[in-house]
Amino acid sequence: MKSKELSRRDFLRLLGIGGGAAVLSACAPKLLAETAFPPTAIPATSVPSVPNTASGEVDVEIALKAIEGEAQILPGKATRVWRYQGEVMSGPADALQIVPNSYLGPIFNVKKGQKIRVHFTNELRESSIVHWHGLHVPVEADGHPRLAIDPGETYIYDFTVMDRAGTYWYHPHPHGRTGPQAYAGLAGLFLISDDEEKSLGLPSGDYDLPIVIQDRLFDSDNQLVYGGNGMMDQMMGFLGDRILVNGQADFSLPVATRPYRLRLHNGSNSRIYKLGWDDGTPFNIIATDGGLLEKPLDRQYITLAPAQRMEIWVDFSEKAVGSETKLINFPSEAPDGGGKFTIMNVKVERSESVSAPLPAALSTITWHNESDAVNRHSPREFELAMGRGMGWTLNGRTFEMTSVAQDEIVKLGDLEVWQFTNQAGGRGMMGGGMGLPHPMHVHGLQYQIIERSGGEQYTSLHEGFVDEGWHDTVLVMPGEHVKVLLKFEDFTGLYLYHCHNLEHEDMGMMRNYRVDA
Ligand code: C2O
Ligand code: CU
Ligand code: CU
Fold first, then answer.
1. Residue 171 vs residues 11, 84, 201, 340, 440: alpha-carbon distances, Å
2. Domains of the chain, residue spans
3. Terminus of the chain with fewer CB atoms < 10 Å: N or C?
4. 487 ligand 1 Cβ < 6 A
5. Looking at residue 53, what is its pLDDT?
């Protein structure tokens, strides 16, 4: 992968500007001044206005710290990283699982229904807060940027695990600094199990493995580089030229001749992957962002946008010991996705005979019904576009810490249709034709994708879309309209929706929505 030159050219092409370099540089100074890109410390933006004291009995209590540290990623010198470090204070010792040889945070292993308490201590030199991505939790536990804590402080999260069995994750969420903090290494998986899932006999233990895919850029001293392209990185989103899996470069997965459950997670700031096996074997997809599907799906490719998860069941029992397979990124219309490169190597190292067929049915799901939506005849519209001052906007607005607009207030208990429209035409100074993909994420719930239209030219990425199942992040291509069905249950207060291209998010492509009683 040669990322830098490609991205510059692709950027102009994607924005529909031929030879538009002059336009770009004219806009650059303002943007650079608006966003603190180099890792300088910024103070916490406000004091938590919600009660934050621990009380009562819980099933699992965990101390989680964000610290500065080092990790061996490339041969030679260790890389300075920021990382989460955890410790089980009470509850089952296996509630946390360390990812070996990795900067990634410990994997949470919890059960549906458990009461969780996390004491998060910020040992960085700038403010931070933890967000539990995909989880249905009260606002005080959602890690909104207004709750960011200063260095040395502790924030206590109390919540009950209400979500379905599946692969969720956690990462920082301070305003304007989510991109650099996640890039520096702050991220971890949050796995939920439940009785229905247990009864399926899916591969477990050593045969149930996380595959966290991230791209990074290193200098000659093995140190991480971020934001070196300034405004280009901000507008496009940061793209690295090294693929890491579970925090390791040139990752190779040793397997036995038997079935595995692989939990694929795109933990990259902005890179979109189109995944496939090099030998053409199709995927058996068993879960999306919000957990198990009703039944496995058979697909040739998987398009995985930032923040998305997809679980696959894969059987290596027909492979010869000593053989190798590769998980490949295939060329697509993703920005800078034009190359074919290896994500990881799978080495069949030993023989094992296990009869554990893929279950034909996975989960019984109670779906939302579109005809019950309070706005079924007129969806709530969200226009994703370039703003006047050159920055990405949602309905022409950028993030404000605590305010919501009239059209961002919903009612507790309501089922709604939201439509995300990626305005490839833009409303800004640069005229028509501009557009980038935006992976749209809504906090606090899982939604159903009920309709997708436009954007038919993205045939390659479309081959890998999996719109079935529950999602918290959906990729919306330029010119595309995506309708989702979401229900605001149990909790009132201020949540977020935003683009999960972390550079877009940090620049303000994020807004509050409020659930009123
Ligand atoms: Cu994964 Cu608001 O984010
Ligand atoms: Cu989230
Ligand atoms: Cu975006």
1. 27, 9, 30, 29, 16
2. 60-195, 205-350, 370-516
3. C
4. no
5. 60
